Amino acid sequence: MSDSTVHGEPLGDESGLVLLEVSEPHSTVVHRLVTHRLADTPGRTAYWIDARNAVSTHVLYDCASSARALSGLQVARAFTAYQHHTLVREVVRRADPRTELVVAPNVASLYHDSDVPAYEREELFASTLETLSELGEVLGCPVLVTSADDERASAVSEYARTTIQCVHTREGLRLVGPDGNAATEGYWQGEWWQTTIPYWAEVCGTVDRLDPVVAAYDRGLLEVTH
C-alpha cells in the first residue's frame, strides 16, 4: 500500500502488521476488508483472532459476495489476554504459504484487563505484537489489527509496518495510508466499494494525449492528399 490511499484491493500487496485505526471496537469495516480480500483470492485461507466479540457472522455473510468466499476463513474467539496470546501462537503453528490474511481486531484491549498482572501485561502484549508482525513478514501477507483506543493504538503503531485511517466523508468511508493528502481512489458506501477515476487510471493505465491532427483526421475534418 505504501503512502497512498487504499485502492480497489484495499490491502494491496501489503505484508506485515497493518494497523487499521477505527472509531469504535465493533467497526464493520474490518468485515468488509476481509470479505473483499477473500473474494479476490479463492482457495486461500484466513484466520480471525477475535477479541471483545468484534466478529459477526451475520455481517460477514452480508458483506461477502457469496458464502463460498468465506469457506477459507477460520474464526477463534479469545476472552482473556492469555487465551488471545495462545490463539496467536496457534495461528503461527497452523499458517502456511496458502494463508492470505490474518485478522486480530481489538488486539490490545484484553491485555489491559484486571486479570493480567501489571508486571506481566506489557511483556505479554509486546510478545503478541512481535509474533503477529513476524508472521506477516514471513508469510508475505497482511496481518490486520485494529484499536479504537488512541493510547493503545499508539502502542500498536510502534510494531505496525503500515497504518490505515478510516475517515468518514459525505461520499462514504475513505481509507487512507500514512499520506493523508493522497488522492481518494475509492469509498466504502454500505456494502459497496465505490471506485473513482484515479483508481481506474491506476488499474487500466492512461492513454497518451491524442495528437490534434490525428483527431481532426479521424473526425473527417482534415483531408490528406497523396
UniProtKB/TrEMBL annotation:
<protein>
    <recommendedName>
        <fullName>DNA recombination and repair protein Rad51-like C-terminal domain-containing protein</fullName>
    </recommendedName>
</protein>
<dbReference type="InterPro" id="IPR027417">
    <property type="entry name" value="P-loop_NTPase"/>
</dbReference>
